[in-house]
Write a structure and sequence with these properties.
Length: 413
């Protein structure tokens, strides 16, 4: 291929933890711009012939970590024909599996788009984020894709910002966005807003919530309150819990103390949803609609949980992702991490911008905030001025052993 993929590694110890959660444009004739990422049609770019089978959700366990490739020694050679892009991900250590999956996804995107003018170099963040970011800037990279963890984003921004190098991060922590830091990660608040808005459109006015203790639960509560208030509804109860059965059971017994409710938000991952739903039915309401978040999208076990039948949740569409996952498995012999779609989409976006980007000049940051947006494996998205991505989400319902889309994602903004 003409696009180049190098692997370089730098080192020192670092703190490492993984966060709990992880469009077609407006009419081009109206605004004179085309922001849609098209290369003879998105489907023909992303998927080769014979890769149309959708891989069922959760059919394989997360992939085992892949050993990191050997380091590249010395400085990168001079290159006047390619845009230098840095990929900052963990390629060793406990998060190597997801980091390698992201790196593999970027390679697939470079191959699929047949990019002629991009040279991507990987830097291992697990051996020291400061050293990785410093080396990436010293090597002349004009854009940083990654890192994965929010604390690493802050450290990278402190090095990249003075050099005028923007960051496309995989984090979903809105607190680190802005000032040339753009988040590709799925923001949990958006899925809550989407499913609550849908519930209100179906006549539901009284809401309750069961949320975990901690920052995620606090943000979920705030989002529910604002979303319900905007539509003239009422939040009758919000109860917090620790992630154990006794705490969950006690919280559900308090849910209906202030009266009945039409819907209850269960703001946690699929495992906790399966555990908490029976308690909601036993102790609070056997008729209220249970609502979930995009964290449910990665849990195939939800479809088999009787207490969750009929529950609704909002997430990105899995249609294109399923085809990508089939192609990924054929190439690498294992299933990708769900988050790896962000790696693929980061390259689609970069290749689109690179069409009108002169080699050796600064990355044209203003093109990232085109209100028309972009399209990728996870559907339509765009960046707000504050660096947070907005995504078009669909609403799914849990059936008896399956998931069904009951309100498709919008096709544009």
């Amino acid at each position: 291929m003409n696009a180049m993929t190098d692997k370089s590694h730098v080192g020192q110890d670092e703190k490492s933890f993984l966060q709990a959660s992880f469009a077609p444009p407006q009419n081009a004739a109206a605004n004179g711009r085309r922001s849609l990422l098209k290369y003879a049609g998105l489907a023909s770019v992303i998927f080769l012939a014979g890769c149309g089978t959708i891989m069922p959700r959760g059919t394989e366990p997360p992939p085992a970590p892949t050993p990191a490739p050997p380091p590249v020694t010395g400085d990168l050679p001079s290159d006047e024909n390619h845009h230098r892009i840095a990929l900052l991900v963990p390629l060793s250590g406990k998060n190597a599996g997801i980091g390698q999956s992201l790196a593999n996804a970027t390679t697939m995107a470079l191959l699929d788009t047949k990019a002629q003018n991009i040279r991507m170099t990987s830097y291992d963040t697990s051996k020291g984020i400061t050293a990785a970011a410093t080396k990436a800037i010293a090597d002349g990279n004009k854009l940083i894709i990654g890192p994965l963890l929010s604390d690493n984003v802050v450290a990278t921004a402190n090095i990249a910002r003075p050099a005028g190098v923007p960051i496309l991060s995989f984090s979903n922590d809105a607190g680190v966005a802005g000032n040339n830091v753009f988040l590709l990660g799925h923001i949990p608040a958006q899925s809550i807003e989407r499913v609550v808005t849908y519930a209100k459109s179906k006549g539901m006015k009284r809401f309750a919530a069961l949320v975990p203790n901690g920052v995620y639960g606090q943000r979920a509560s705030s989002t529910l309150l604002s979303s319900v208030k905007d539509g003239g509804g009422t939040v009758v109860s919000i109860q917090t819990f620790n992630r154990d059965s006794a705490s969950v059971e006690a919280a559900t017994k308090k849910l209906s103390q202030n009266g009945d409710f039409d819907a209850v938000l269960l703001a946690d991952n699929g495992t906790m949803a399966i555990q908490a739903a029976p308690y909601i039915r036993q102790n609070a309401s056997d008729t209220a609609k249970i609502l979930g978040t995009d964290l449910w999208n990665t849990s195939s076990e939800l479809a088999g949980a009787p207490a969750l039948r009929g529950a609704w949740f909002a997430s990105v569409s899995d249609g294109l992702y399923g085809q990508y996952a089939t192609k990924y498995r054929a190439r690498y012999g294992r299933a990708p991490f769900r988050l790896s779609s962000l790696g693929y989409d980061s390259v689609l976006l970069t290749v689109k911008v690179a069409q009108n980007w002169k080699v050796g000049t600064a990355f044209p940051i203003n093109q990232l905030t085109d209100p028309g947006g972009f399209i990728g494996l996870d559907g339509v998205f765009r960046f707000r001025r504050d660096g947070i991505s907005e995504r078009a989400l669909e609403v799914q319902e849990i059936k008896n052993g399956s998931f069904s889309v009951i309100d498709p994602a919008p096709k544009g903004f």
